[in-house]
Amino acid sequence: MISVIIPTYNRFEIIQETVERMLHLSTSVEFEIIVVNDGQPLPYKFKHPRVTYYQNPKKGVASARNYGVEKARYALLFFIDDDMWISKESLEAIATLQSQAFFETKCALLNWEYPPILQQQMQREKVGRYILKANYHTLEGRAKMIVDTSQTLVQISSIGSGSMAMSKSIFQKIGGYDESITFQGEDNAMSAALSNQQVSVFLYTPITCLHNQKDRLDLDGYLDRERRGYVSQFKKDKSSEKINWIKWFIFICLIPFAPIIKWLYSIIPNQPKYDTLNFRLIGLQTSIIYYKAWLIE
Q1: Of the four, 74, 104, 195, 226, which is 20 to 30 A from 274 by CA?
Q2: Residue 248 class from Cβ within 10 Å (0-12 exposed, 13-18 middle, 19+ buried)?
């Protein structure tokens, strides 16, 4: 029996599609879906006995996940992002690990990548091609690691809450998520807490979830996601960041010119032959946001 906990923030279409897909799964595994909304009230209701919906009384994804755990009925927790599509095989794999007492001392991540149809769409967009080139459309690329898929379970050093299973007892033992982190960085804090309690983290390789980030392929959506992440990260702790002071000076000086850089990006044709220039402009804007967030926080 699994409690699937999904925090969401102003992504009405995304969370609706995620939940509806789960409700259509044909599996013998007993599960509940807990949606914790951290943004504006949803314009619709989930009318299914498996789904419970809560408006987060606090703010931030960390507190939303903690609140979901408080409401969870089952001893096994499965945290997913609001844009993560899981399969019946995902639930069955987690249930099998639970029957083997795996979650008594360990936690597991399920692999993920963007849906194939989304990757095809990304080939037609500047930002999409940039994400594909950087390999940010897979867990391996985002985590900058190479996974040995010949092994069912691969030990890794850190967690990712977009597709992570953990027992409620371990969650409570480490004190849950750090609620002072509102958006990005909570996974790093939890990874450290797990390490301190000698809880191992494993990636389960046979199952690949589909990460449906279709609403973050335009430049504004991509940059806003980066901005909110950096602000949250630096608000919690800047001391762990290794700053290149020469780059810091250069990009701080470029902040007033950010609108011009964005304009230049907008007038360059959306054709692969211009990707080198477009990618440099995207990277430049991302770096400006990074150092600006560091300066402000």
Answers
A1: 226
A2: middle
Can you give the residue ranges of every domain in the chain? 2-215, 219-296
Torsion of CA 47, 93, 65, 179, to 10 degrees: -170
Q: What is the pLDDT of residue 157?
A: 86
* Residue stretches of the chain with pLDDT short of 50: none
- Beta carbons within 8 Å of 268's beta carbon, 6+ residues apart: 274, 277, 278, 281
Rounded CA separation 153/272 (Å): 38
Chain centre distance of CA 92: 22
Residue range 106-125, pLDDT digits in tens: 999 999 999 999 999 999 99
Burial class from Cβ neighbours inside 10 Å (0-12, 13-18, 19+) for residue 4 reads buried
Two tokens at 93? 């794999």
Rounded CA-CA distance 251/290 in Å is 9
- Residue 69 in contact with residue 5, Cβ under 8 Å? yes
CA distance 132 to 114: 10
CA distance 208 to 211: 9
Provide CATH code, domain 2-215. 3.90.550.10
Look at the block and give the residue holding tokens 């002072």: 180
Phi then psi for residue 125, to 5 deg, are: -120, 145
Q: Which tens digit of pLDDT belongs to each residue from 276-292?
A: 999 999 999 999 988 88
The number of residues making up the chain comes to: 297
pTM of the model: 0.89
Specify the pLDDT at position 111. 93
CB 81 within 8 A of CB 206: no
Name 96's Cβ contacts closer than 8 Å, sequence gap at least 6: none
